[in-house]
Amino acid sequence: MAVVEQKPSSDQGKVWGFFKLPFRNAGPVPNSSSSSSVSHLGGHHHPGGPQVEGSEGHHGSSSVSSVAKSLLPARRRLKLDPSTKLYFPYEPGKQVRSAIKIKNISKSHVAFKFQTTAPKSCFMRPPGAILAPGESIIATVFKFVEHPENNEKPINQKSSVKFKIMCLKVKGMMDYVPELFDEQKDQVVVERILRVIFLDPERPCPALEKLKRQLAEADAAVEARKKPPEDAGPKIIGEGLVIDEWKERRERYLARQQVEGVDSV
């Protein structure tokens, strides 16, 4: 079998020389060993001639790229604050609140939703939403705190309850419905898994102070959504008819005209 002689560079010659060794001075070789040696080197056996260097480039590059993508970490679409934990004041027998700020840091519209391992004692407001690029929202998480079995306070300890934030890239702004995540299961990404941390409400700490500020911001946002939209000026209806203040001016003008007409008579 003839081998085309090339003068490779010093580095390439060492690498490719290894692959050419089985083919040099090769006489008739049994089919089994020939096939196994070729397949072991990653090529495909061609009965008409030797394996050409670079013929498997496309297949090899695609497989390498797929492996590289699987090893790379998933790109985040949402920025969470706090990023990995949900802090709750520890008040047994009461329903307490936590807050988390969610910001869309991608260039696309993103839908998100909460999931929890304790749906009977936890719920979220809002449970999900669609954020435009750069838009943020503060979600409030409610949890009922049960009394401990051994009368020990699990302060600053991780709870078994977990929260999962899932996200989905959408084409644009639309009404949020949970069915979006069922219709596009293959595109859903788990953004974060959050653990519950209890804080002693009687001992001030940075995490507790931050929680109070975020809860105040969340309450203010809820109140702002309840207020009716402010009047931004005269309203235009129909084919450019202006009402409100212009209508009042015309009525006053007509009233003066009528008074002046009566006086002149």
For the structure shown, list the relevant keywords:
five-stranded mixed beta sheet, about 25% strand, about 260 residues, single chain, alpha+beta, four-stranded antiparallel beta sheet, extended
Low-pLDDT windows of residues? 8-26, 32-56, 68-73
Major sheet, described briefly?
5 strands, mixed
What is the beta-strand fraction? 25-35%
Instruction: Please bin the fraction of helical residues.
Output: 25-40%
- The CA-CA distance between the termini, in Å, is 126 Å
Instruction: Give the overall shape, derived from the CA principal axes.
Output: extended
The beta-strand count equals: 11
Order of helices and strands: HHHEEEEEEEEHEHEEH
**Rg value:** 35 Å
Number of helices: 6
With strands numbered from the N-terminus, the spatial order across the biggest sheet is: 2-9-8-4-6
Average pLDDT level: 74
* Helix vs. strand class: alpha+beta
